Recover the amino acids of this structure.
């Protein structure tokens, strides 16, 4: 049963990933990418890493890919034109592919040390989240905090790059807007006819 | 012979799940029909109108008449539309809205610690959060595939709005997870046993935390309004500016699916509020074990189901009231509320609750 499920989901992942690069419309590409992410989450559920699977869906499918789709929809890129002449780069593509394949082969030959999911479904076994938490906050605490610092630097960098202080910008002050009273905003006049104010 | 029975036994599991799915779907569809009517009736009542009152007694069959009308109309696809994506968007919205209900526990089981639920997931609350965050795709895809300006603007607004408010919803959920120490929905509900004061919205078992959890409930409620594109945050379909937002080009069955998905998501948010904050199926007064021991367990389960449905109905009534009495927000106000008020508040609440759990106790 698990084998059938794995084969089905893996086939969907591979096919969807192929359509990501094969699709003519960039928006279709992103939609295929989303399907790839989602099916990969399915693979994670199959090896018992349900927490990671949910995080993958929440973070990548639910947030990152939405922003991605957002940007791609706004851009008016002609993908067909961009793709012309891509065949020239086949030696590089081949090189990258061979390197990736070699790495995968190395991992599968080395075997043994490859971490597998928490397949133990007994109630006493720690849940996914607990297991990840124990490892992350003990053995890998330094790396974890380092990752946090990298993200912080990236965030500060993004803000520095985009923050502009322009002098003549009208800004809205919500407190000022809601703090307005009738007395400050409305003045009743009684103009005499023919004279005006 | 025994072989046949055994193979029947292995078939029993999947068949049971299929039956549960069918039952959930049927009950959900039927309740949506009447909740829609309730929504319109409440809206009308606030405005001192009568609301739908022609089809059936008190207009009870109005939703079924609408349903028939939607099904019989012709499906119109705009000429420049991206056909596949255009038709997939409403199907996706509706499917995702149904799929979330697989993890919702609706009543206590006959044994302690169990519940009436299709899939009792360890990461139940994350599953709900994950799937409901996918709902935005239906809207974006619909808006983009319509190949028209108003739907596209509506879709963009909706994407920004849903991504923004998801963040504070996530933090509010984290406070509850911290208190309970589990992401299992049944465990979360059972943590609120023992009377109304123990519901997470009041949190008397973690005494001063009512000061945090009550505001968190309010934040969750308001964020849920924004997440489901309900008034006062219905800017993606603000009819005075965008006609009907991402739904402009939709009619007939695709529109029906959009609307069904939208209302299912609203009811889902009500169910999430019930489970996370309002004690799920637990009644406001705790019955001691000496009282419940003599009652048949099935009766207790049904009573729990009644409480659960009552609370969901109460939350839905609040949703309907808000629609009727609050004027629509401006878009910059909406973004400001989400990022500058809710996000810092809920983040502070996470830190306070984490501190409470660490130093005062709570996690076993």
């Amino acid at each position: 049963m698990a084998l059938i499920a794995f084969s089905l989901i893996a086939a969907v992942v591979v096919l969807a990933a192929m359509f990501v690069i094969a699709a003519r419309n960039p928006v279709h590409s992103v939609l295929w990418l989303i399907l790839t992410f989602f099916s990969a989450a399915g693979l994670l559920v199959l090896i018992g890493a349900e927490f990671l699977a949910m995080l993958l869906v929440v973070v990548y499918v639910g947030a990152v890919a939405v922003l991605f789709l957002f940007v791609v929809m706004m851009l008016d890129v002609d993908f067909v034109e961009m793709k012309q002449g891509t065949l020239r780069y086949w030696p590089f593509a081949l090189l990258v592919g061979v390197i990736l394949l070699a790495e995968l082969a190395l991992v599968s030959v080395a075997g043994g040390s490859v971490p597998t999911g928490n397949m133990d479904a007994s109630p006493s076994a720690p849940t996914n989240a607990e297991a990840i938490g124990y490892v992350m906050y003990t053995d890998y605490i330094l790396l974890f905090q380092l990752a946090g610092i990298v993200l912080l630097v990236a965030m500060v960098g993004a803000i520095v790059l985009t923050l502009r202080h322009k002098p003549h910008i009208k800004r809205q002050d919500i407190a000022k807007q809601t703090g307005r009273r009738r007395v400050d905003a409305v003045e009743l006049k009684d103009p005499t006819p023919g004279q005006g104010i | 012979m025994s072989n046949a029975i055994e193979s029947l036994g292995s078939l029993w599991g999947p068949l049971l799940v299929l039956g549960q799915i069918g039952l959930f779907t049927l009950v959900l569809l039927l309740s949506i029909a009447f909740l829609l009517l309730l929504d319109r009736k409440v809206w009308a009542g606030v405005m001192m109108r009568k609301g739908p009152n022609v089809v059936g007694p008190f207009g009870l069959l109005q939703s079924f008449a609408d349903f028939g009308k939607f099904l019989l109309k012709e499906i119109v696809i705009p000429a420049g539309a991206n056909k596949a994506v255009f038709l997939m968007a409403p199907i996706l919205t509706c499917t995702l809205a149904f799929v979330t209900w697989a993890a919702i526990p609706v009543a206590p089981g006959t044994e302690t610690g169990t519940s009436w639920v299709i899939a009792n997931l360890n990461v139940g609350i994350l599953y709900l959060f994950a799937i409901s965050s996918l709902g935005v795709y239906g809207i974006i895809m619909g808006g983009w595939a319509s190949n028209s300006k108003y739907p596209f603007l509506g879709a963009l607004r909706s994407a920004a709005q849903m991504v923004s408010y998801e963040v504070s919803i996530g933090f509010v959920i984290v406070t509850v997870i911290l208190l309970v120490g589990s992401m299992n929905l049944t465990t979360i509900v059972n943590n609120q046993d023992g009377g109304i004061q123990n519901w997470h919205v009041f949190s008397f078992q973690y005494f001063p935390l009512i000061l945090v959890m009550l505001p968190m409930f309010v934040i969750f409620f308001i964020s849920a309004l924004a997440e489901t594109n309900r008034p006062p945050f219905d800017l993606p379909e603000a009819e005075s500016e965008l006609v009907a937002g991402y739904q402009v080009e939709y009619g007939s069955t695709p529109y029906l699916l959009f609307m069904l998905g939208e209302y299912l998501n609203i009811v889902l948010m009500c169910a999430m509020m019930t489970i996370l904050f309002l004690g799920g199926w637990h009644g406001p007064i705790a019955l001691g074990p000496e009282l419940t021991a003599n009652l048949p367990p099935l009766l207790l389960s049904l009573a729990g189901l009644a409480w659960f449905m009552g609370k969901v109905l109460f939350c839905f009534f609040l949703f309907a009231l808000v629609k009727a009495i609050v004027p629509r927000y401006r878009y910059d106000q909406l973004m400001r509320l989400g990022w500058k008020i809710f996000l810092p508040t809920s983040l502070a609440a996470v830190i306070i609750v984490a501190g409470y759990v660490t130093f005062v106790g709570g996690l076993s």
About this structure: Chain A is about 70% helix and 0% strand.
